[in-house]
């Protein structure tokens, strides 16, 4: 039986190498396959704001006043919206820009956490792009402008005329 062991180990090694190469190839092929799947099913189209505007009925009879707020906790950053408020029609995409600046001379990392008012607004707020989706790292003295692109669902209750989007940046440990 000892004579068969080297052949068995060699066979197993070959199988593992083939399996590893196949799994790497599968993982590498997943990106174009996923993109093709999204293209065929229309998922990419649904996420584009210009398509959403065409496919969503814009309620021109209503205007929602959106108040913008910005806060920082535990970071030497200044953070503010470039506009304090905007008006949007439900169903129409909107963009607001925030400016952030690292007031220190060291690289700092932070993550923005959103909060909304009135309660349950998140069910009617659909964001396409937001700096809050990812960690933000600013070099010492760096200033950056970042956009939030969103749409308010026309199904927002009729008694809601004002909403607040608030973002608070919290400190993250740098690597």
Give the gist of this structure.
The protein has helices at residues 5-41, 43-47, 49-55, and strands spanning 64-73, 77-81, 85-88, 93-102, 108-117, 125-129, 136-138, 143-152, 162-172. It has 175 residues and is α+β, with helices and mostly antiparallel strands.
**Arithmetic mean of pLDDT:** 84
SSE sequence, one letter per element: HHHEEEEEEEEE
Distance between the termini: 53 Å
- Helicity, as a percent range: 25-40%
Rg, Å, rounded: 24 Å
Shape: flat
Strand content: 35-45%
Contiguous uncertain segments of 5+ residues: none
Biggest sheet features: 5 strands, mixed
How many helical stretches? 3
Side-by-side strand order of the widest sheet: 3-1-9-5-7
* Structural category: alpha+beta
Let me know the number of strands. Answer: 9
Q: What's the helix and strand layout?
A:
Elements (H helix, E strand, L loop, with lengths): L4 H37 L1 H5 L1 H7 L8 E10 L3 E5 L3 E4 L4 E10 L5 E10 L7 E5 L6 E3 L4 E10 L9 E11 L3
Parallel strand pairs: 1-9
Antiparallel strand pairs: 1-3, 2-4, 4-8, 5-7, 5-9, 6-8
Provide structural commentary.
It is a single chain. The protein has 175 residues and is α+β, with helices and mostly antiparallel strands. The protein is built from three helices and nine strands. The strands form two sheets. The protein has a five-stranded mixed beta sheet, with no helix packed on it. The chain has a four-stranded antiparallel beta sheet with strand order 2-4-8-6. It is flat, with a radius of gyration of 24 Å. The mean pLDDT is 84.
